[in-house]
Amino acid sequence: MSIEAVRKWYPKALTSIDTVNRLLDTIEKHLSLEPHQLMHADSMCCDDVNAIQYPPRAYEMLGPFHLGGLDGYPFAGITGMNAFAHHVPEDGAVIIFYAPHIGITKDGTIGEISRIGQSDNSACCGAAKGALGKLANDKIIEGNITSLDFQMNTIEQIFLHQKNRIMTAENQIFEATEVMYEAIDDRIEVLVQETNYPCKYVILVGAIFINGDKDMGSFCQYKKFEYIDLETKERRSLMDEYYQ
């Protein structure tokens, strides 16, 4: 399958292999850092398809340290961010990649994929679709977060607070994924502000991670690519350089 089915929904999507190649090339060109100087954390869904489709070149960086739980929300919190921050090379940078994920089939159906060894399609992200189903049926109770299903309950609350936006959208699972990205982005920004990093830069990369069918691989559309110079506190986007 070509990338066209993905680009119907995400016009600037690239294969995840291409995104990592461009990412590392852009960092090397503009920050003079090589992969072994980058301590990498990701905040992605714990769904096995993300491990299966993880781009190999990402392993040239140190890590990854996994911040994410269901649908990529950084459930590791301030303790996880602090632990990861203190593993970084002093002359290097931390790079935090965060993304909710969504499936797109060969024929362009969004919110599901064909998985290895299965004859029927399944939900992707399953947690997002589950929360969306409860939202549509008015089954989410305001403030209900339990220890037994803490991560799922958190996603439900995020969706509940954006119920009108999601339910009136042209495509609800697409919109719910956008809502999830914004919630993850907000939380990552708070965690970064609360953490001291003993290195030169913090690099923030926010995206939508797109899972294809079992024989398609994965894709990614960046929404943020910025670095913070920890000495000068300057913050700058590298998005234009990334897409050159």
Automatic annotation (TrEMBL):
InterPro entries: LCIB/C_CA (IPR040703). It holds the Pfam family LCIB_C_CA. Residues 16-229 form the Limiting CO2-inducible protein B/C beta carbonyic anhydrase domain. This is Limiting CO2-inducible protein B/C beta carbonyic anhydrase domain-containing protein. It comes from Epilithonimonas hungarica.
